[in-house]
């Protein structure tokens, strides 16, 4: 899953990519830090299509369990001495009690139940946010409803100065992420990402009106 846009590649496209990678014997590094936040049940991960002998899977627990579990992991069928050494050194810097707690969550099955509830809540929130964005920002932006994750990727229908939009919103204590932050080459200058994990006790509609006004005021 694309963690920025919350979108999934079509199954046919993924199968074609996997076929080419396997045919040429290429190594694949899959970043699966957000894979568990996919809303669609039964959507197989890309790694299931790849030769496991040439596969590395990088993941983390903080996106699913929370900041109380700031642990990453690397899955591989190969045991390289350098990897093992680095992971052992890292393990001594992390509280063993937390590591044991994460292990017990997995072993007990509680994490699976937690993820099911988490995905349901996230989907509900993202559907609500998507509807509000369509209502209040429909004349200013376009977007695809996310199929996972906790954010919306918005593309402006008009040319705007997103840096000035960001500063205007920051003055109102509203934080968005300019699209160019997600590109090493400064692309996506007409895009921005908003989070769905906001405090829903606040007036979300008023915040979106402020975003709409900022986009309108900074048209080029």
Automatic annotation (TrEMBL):
Domain Aminotransferase class I/classII large: 6-196
InterPro entries cross-referenced by the UniProt entry: Aminotransferase_I/II_large, HTH_trans_reg/aminotransferase, PyrdxlP-dep_Trfase, PyrdxlP-dep_Trfase_major, PyrdxlP-dep_Trfase_small
Taxonomic source organism: Tanacetum cinerariifolium (Dalmatian daisy)
Protein name in the entry: Aminotransferase class I/classII large domain-containing protein
One Gene Ontology MF term: pyridoxal phosphate binding
PANTHER family for this protein: HTH-TYPE TRANSCRIPTIONAL REGULATORY PROTEIN GABR
């Amino acid at each position: 899953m694309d963690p920025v846009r919350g979108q999934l590649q079509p199954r046919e496209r993924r199968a074609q990519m996997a076929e080419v990678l396997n045919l040429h014997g290429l190594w694949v590094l899959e970043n699966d830090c957000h894979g568990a936040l996919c809303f669609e049940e039964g959507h197989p991960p890309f790694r299931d299509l790849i030769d496991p002998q040439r596969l590395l899977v990088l993941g983390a627990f903080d996106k699913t369990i929370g900041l109380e579990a700031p642990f990453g992991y690397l899955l591989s069928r190969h045991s390289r001495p350098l990897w093992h050494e680095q992971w052992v050194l890292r393990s001594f810097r992390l509280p063993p009690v937390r590591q044991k707690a994460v292990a017990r969550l997995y072993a007990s099955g509680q994490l699976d139940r937690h993820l099911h509830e988490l995905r349901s809540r996230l989907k509900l929130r993202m559907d609500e946010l998507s509807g509000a964005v369509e209502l209040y920002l429909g004349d200013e932006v376009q977007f695809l409803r996310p199929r996972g994750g906790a954010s919306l990727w918005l593309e402006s229908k008009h040319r705007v100065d997103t840096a000035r939009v960001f500063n205007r919103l920051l003055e109102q204590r509203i934080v968005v992420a300019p699209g160019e932050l997600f590109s090493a080459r400064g692309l996506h200058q007409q895009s921005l990402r908003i989070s769905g994990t906001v405090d829903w006790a606040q007036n979300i509609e008023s915040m979106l009106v402020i975003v709409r006004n900022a986009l309108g005021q900074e048209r080029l």
